[in-house]
Specification:
By secondary structure, this protein is of the alpha+beta class. It has a single domain (16-99), classed as Beta Barrel (OB fold (Dihydrolipoamide Acetyltransferase, E2P)). The chain has helices at residues 4-13, 38-49; strands at residues 15-26, 54-58, 64-68, 81-88, 91-99. A 5-stranded mixed beta barrel has the order 1-2-3-5-4. The longest helix has 12 residues, at 38-49. The protein is globular.
């Protein structure tokens, strides 16, 4: 039993649910398209249409986070977003995306 408790706590700590604010971008340009400029928003849209994966770039530290579990991320390209989900490593399993206030 003593062996399993540290393993359980390590696994539980590896998943961090939360809400993250930033910009939906694409996996090719990442933080380079994480701003409100029309040029960046159009570039991210083109890259996503050409097969790049959607990512979230956080406002706080410009961290690029892969998105999983939600296929409508591209619908939120025009504005800053709040993304809620569970972060494991560098991938966020999304439960909700909404416009940031």
């Amino acid at each position: 039993m003593k062996i399993f408790l540290p393993l359980f706590f390590a696994l539980a700590a590896s998943a961090a649910p939360g809400t993250y604010t930033g910009w939906i971008s694409d996996s090719q340009c990442g933080a380079g398209n994480a701003n409100a400029s029309a040029e960046s928003r159009e570039c991210a849209e083109r890259c996503l249409k050409n097969g790049a994966e959607p990512v979230l770039v956080t406002d706080k530290d410009q961290k690029v986070i892969k998105l999983a579990g939600k296929q409508n991320a591209a619908a939120h390209l025009k504005y800053k977003v709040k993304v809620t989900g569970e972060l494991k490593g560098d991938t966020l399993t999304v439960t909700k995306i909404e416009k940031a206030e």
